[in-house]
Amino acid sequence: MSESRGVKIGAEPSEEEAPGIASRAVDVDGTRWALVEYEPDVLREEFCDVGHSGYVLRGEVTYEFADGGEPLRVQAGDGLVLPGAREHRGRSGPEGVTLFLIDAEVG
Q: In this predicted model, what pLDDT tens digit does every residue of 3-28 receive, in sequence order?
């Protein structure tokens, strides 16, 4: 049985993921939990193939997909699910965005 505990993501150091994008991440039982912050109007250069579930804490982000499908726009208060089988990348809105993401288990 797992034990109850708090997870202090905000106490982790902020690390640059890509230009204009930083995260604070912790490993929770083999799964990455992260607070991810995009500066205003930043597009992640490369596509990501890791699945994520999460919540938009502040601002907005639009995800585009490598397969050319309809973009997904989410804003503060919205949850999101991005399957790993569908490569994606985000572009923050004019105020930037702060996301809470839980990565899908890999392997």
A: 888 988 988 999 999 999 999 999 99
pTM score: 0.89
pLDDT the model gives residue 2 = 67
Residue 1 has pLDDT above 90, yes or no: no
Note the CATH architecture for domain 13-46+57-103: Sandwich (2.60)
Nearest in space to 39 (alpha carbons), one of 100, 97, 101? 97
| pLDDT tops 90 at residue 103 | yes
Residues 6+ apart with CB under 8 A from 46: 18, 89
Output the CA torsion 101→80→98→65 (10° steps). Answer: 100
Q: Where are the domains of the chain?
A: 13-46+57-103
Residues with Cβ within 8 Å of residue 79, at least 6 apart in sequence: 53, 54, 55, 56
